[in-house]
C-alpha cells in the first residue's frame, strides 16, 4: 500500500515522532497505522539510551492551585514541534496530576512515584520511545499559604506556557497576589529578601564593585559609598521585595505588599530551559 503525505502527517500528529521515522514505519507496516505505531514504539525503546545525552531545552510549565497549596512542574523535550503537540501536553498534564496527588516537592520523588502501577520514569521512557525525543521532568515546586496564586506566560502564541510562577501569601488578597505573580514572571527575582543571598555572593559583588570603581578611577575616599551603592543595586535587581514594582515602578514590591496588608511567604519561578 502506497504511503501518502496525509498518512505521514496524521501519524506524526498522533505520535509526535519525526517525519522520516514515521515514513519508514508506515512503509514497513505496509500502510497499517496501528502496526506502524508498534514499530515506532519498539524502535523508540531501543533508542532511549541513545537519547540520554541530548539537550531538552524546550517543553512547558504547568501549574495548579487547590485550596492553600500550589504545584508547579517543568516538563522538557527536545524540540518546539513536540512541545506544542497534543501528546506531550497531555503527558505533562498527567505529570502535574501526579505531583498534586503525591505532594512531591522535587523531581526525584516525583519520578519515583507510581502512575498506572509503574514509576513515572518508566512512563517517560515509554513516551520517549513513542515520540522519539528525550522527555524529562526537570523541576517541581510546591508552596503552601493562606492564599496561593499562579501565573503562566506564553513567550510565543503557538507554544504552551514557557514561564510559570507560584506565589504564596499569608492572607487572601487575590488582586495583589496576581499582580506580584505577574511581576515575578517579568522581572525574574532570585530571592525573596536579601537575607537569603549567600555571604559568598555578597562578598563577590563587593569585590566586583570595588574593582570596577578603582578601574574607573574613583576617589579612594568615595569607594565605600560607591561599593555600598552598587551592592544595594544588586539587591534591588535580584531580591523580590526590593525590586521596583512592574506596574508602578515608583514603588517597591514591599511597599505594594504593605499597602495591601499582606506578606509573601515564598515564590517559585520556572522558565523552560533556563
TrEMBL record:
Pfam assignment, any one: EF_TS
Keyword Flavoprotein: no
Localisation per UniProt entry: Cytoplasm
Domain of life of the organism encoding this protein: Bacteria
Molecular-function annotations in GO: translation elongation factor activity
Alphabetical list of PROSITE patterns matching this protein: EF_TS_1, EF_TS_2
Cellular compartments per GO CC: cytoplasm
Region of interest called Involved in Mg(2+) ion dislocation from EF-Tu, as start-end residue ranges on this chain: 79-82
SUPFAM superfamilies recorded: Elongation factor Ts (EF-Ts), dimerisation domain (SSF54713), UBA-like (SSF46934)
Keyword annotations: Cytoplasm, Elongation factor, Protein biosynthesis
Domain called Translation elongation factor EFTs/EF1B dimerisation: residue spans: 70-273
HAMAP family found in the cross-reference section: EF_Ts
Family (UniProt): Belongs to the EF-Ts family.
Free-text function comment from the UniProt entry: Associates with the EF-Tu.GDP complex and induces the exchange of GDP to GTP. It remains bound to the aminoacyl-tRNA.EF-Tu.GTP complex up to the GTP hydrolysis stage on the ribosome.
Protein name: Elongation factor Ts
Amino acid at each position: 500500500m502506497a504511503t501518502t503525505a496525509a498518512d505521514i502527517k496524521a501519524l506524526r500528529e498522533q505520535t509526535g515522532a519525526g517525519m522520516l521515522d514515521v515514513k519508514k514505519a508506515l512503509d514497513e507496516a505496509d500502510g497499517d497505522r496501528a502496526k506502524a505505531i508498534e514499530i515506532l514504539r519498539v524502535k523508540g525503546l531501543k533508542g532511549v539510551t541513545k537519547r540520554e545525552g541530548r539537550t531538552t531545552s524546550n517543553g512547558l510549565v504547568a501549574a495548579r492551585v487547590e485550596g492553600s497549596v500550589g504545584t508547579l512542574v517543568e516538563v522538557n523535550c527536545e524540540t518546539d514541534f513536540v512541545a506544542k503537540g497534543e501528546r506531550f501536553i497531555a503527558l505533562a498534564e498527567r505529570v502535574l496530576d501526579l505531583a498534586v496527588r503525591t505532594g512531591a516537592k522535587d523531581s526525584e520523588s516525583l519520578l519515583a512515584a507510581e502512575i498506572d502501577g509503574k514509576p513515572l520514569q518508566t512512563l517517560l521512557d515509554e513516551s520517549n520511545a513513542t515520540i522519539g525525543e528525550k522527555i524529562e521532568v526537570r523541576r517541581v515546586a510546591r508552596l503552601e499559604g493562606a492564599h496561593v496564586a499562579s501565573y503562566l506566560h506564553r513567550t510565543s502564541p503557538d507554544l504552551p506556557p514557557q514561564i510559570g510562577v507560584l506565589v504564596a501569601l499569608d492572607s487572601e488578597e487575590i488582586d495583589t497576589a496576581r499582580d506580584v505573580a505577574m511581576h515575578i514572571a517579568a522581572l525574574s527575582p532570585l530571592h525573596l529578601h536579601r537575607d537569603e543571598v549567600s555571604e559568598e555572593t555578597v562578598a563577590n559583588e563587593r569585590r566586583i564593585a570595588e574593582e570596577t570603581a578603582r578601574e574607573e578611577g574613583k576617589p579612594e575616599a568615595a569607594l565605600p559609598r560607591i561599593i555600598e551603592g552598587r551592592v544595594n543595586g544588586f539587591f534591588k535587581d535580584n531580591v523580590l521585595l526590593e525590586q521596583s514594582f512592574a506596574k508602578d515602578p515608583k514603588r517597591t514590591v514591599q511597599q505594594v505588599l504593605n499597602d495591601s496588608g499582606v506578606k509573601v511567604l515564598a515564590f517559585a519561578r520556572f522558565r523552560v530551559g533556563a
